[in-house]
Design a protein that fits this description.
Chain lengths: 148, 148
DNA sequence: TAGTGAGTTGGAGTGCACTCCAGGCAAGCG
DNA sequence: CGCTTGCCTGGAGTGCACTCCAACTCACTA
């Protein structure tokens, strides 16, 4: 992968060590060990290496990748798209244009979502204000509602 | 339901008519007719009335309700929570405090989500900038990447 | 040396939110 | 009259993203 496929910001890592067990990574990334193995099976991880006994040993690079995946996941990118992205990263630099396209289109999605959320926030504020008034005026039961 | 359970803003309605068929409502709300029937089955609709032949006839009030449901849905409120809300609305005004609680807690969720999306947007901007540079520098294939 | 705890696998199961299907009814049209 | 269109029902099926299971290995401690 290219240098830009590691996250730009660093988050606190368990220790200064450079190889992590699956449960350490699960804790760090907020995913279950199951999910980490599943990510690997479906091709969402860039080949995790193993200890001499066959246990997974994640590197800081893997943690960086998981940071990015976590961000994309939180913003609702489908797993299939993330896998496509991961594949492109593995395929090398001739895929940068497509990667750019994928990321840009996702960015548009995210922008749209922010706008949607914002507009819902307005509706919620309005309704919460109304309910607040209602609760402030008569908190006790025993009156009839105008409609319903 | 109370007056505040209709949406504060009006959106364009199919026609000035006051009773709509399921497919008109599907078009309007951006849901399938299947989904509208399903909403009713699970108790997410406040009793839709019927024509003399048993077909659903939605009112403007139903459309208002669907506006709200659509907003909540877009902001990721689980259907189960929306059903709880709908039940409370049906139960009458003694549930306003709980409704307020539910809405307020959802508002916090939405605020958190906006912040998350915003932070992802920053990451995306950063990566897209890097990819942009890369594409600007060498759009043709045939070179080796620094890593992988 | 036996037990505990953390890891391994492939495959099956879960929960959510739809989505579709088969079979049927009612209205309108040529 | 037959045909098409739109709607009805209960129940089954789908896709996504996990989530768990059974059966196993390995390292460590009492």
């Amino acid at each position: 992968m290219t240098v830009i496929d590691s996250a730009p910001v660093r988050t606190a890592r368990p220790e200064g060590r450079e190889r992590y067990t699956i449960s350490e990574v699960a804790d760090y990334a907020g995913l279950s060990a199951h999910t980490l193995r599943w990510y690997e099976r479906i091709g969402l991880m860039p080949h995790v290496d193993r200890s001499h006994t066959g246990q997974r040993r994640y590197t800081d690079r893997d943690l960086d990748w998981l940071d990015l995946v976590g961000k994309l996941r939180l913003t609702g990118m489908p797993v299939a798209d993330m896998v496509r992205y991961a594949e492109m990263v593995r395929e090398g630099d001739h895929t940068v244009v497509d990667r750019l396209r994928l990321l840009s289109s996702h960015r548009e999605d995210v922008r749209r979502r922010i706008a949607e959320l914002q507009s819902t926030l307005d509706v919620l504020d309005y309704k919460i204000d109304r309910y607040g008034e209602l609760c402030g005026l008569h908190t006790s039961p025993g009156f009839t509602s105008p409609d319903s």
